[in-house]
Amino acid sequence: MDHDEARVKLLDAAEELFYARGIQAVGMDAIRSGSGVSLKRLYQYFPAKGDLVEAYLRRRDERWRRSLVDYVEAHSPGDRVPAVFDWLRGWFSEDDFRGCAFINSFGELGEGAPGVARVAREHKDSVRGHLRAWAGSESLGDQIFALVEGATVIAGITGDPTAADTAKAAAQTLLRAASAG
């Protein structure tokens, strides 16, 4: 197994286990077992568990945002904000949906893991930036961001993907008010 393949296997196992069970509930031995990579090699790539958590979150951020952006930008500019909530509805409906990995990680580790906190903030700042661009203003984008985050938390806790529909209706109300203003 070459360097890249081992790293991918480690990150795949980490993502599956951390997202499903939580970071603190998963030890490095479980990552080793789930990846098929030796513990010695795991620690060569990720000397501390925090390094692995940060790498997992950075990779998840890249894939998650790319999927969202690709979906939303396939729509006309006037339909992009509502499309965000359609994309969220699909994500919330996935069998393995367990809420936001960034909120979950920060909730578990908080400021005690400054690298994880930094990655979570960077993710949220990037999402907010996209929403500001799609909404056409910082203020409206920030309001839409609050709806996205709220819907994600609600869906994560309740398991009900219709939280995206409720937030979409609220976003459409905000968009109408902004265009009438």
Automatic annotation (TrEMBL):
The keyword Transcription regulation applies. Residues 27-46 bind DNA. Residues 4-64 form the HTH tetR-type domain. It comes from the Bacteria. InterPro entries: Homeodomain-like_sf, HTH_TetR, Tet_transcr_reg_TetR-rel_C_sf. Keywords: DNA-binding, Transcription, Transcription regulation. This is AcrR family transcriptional regulator. It comes from Amycolatopsis thermophila. The lineage of its organism: Bacteria, Bacillati, Actinomycetota, Actinomycetes, Pseudonocardiales.
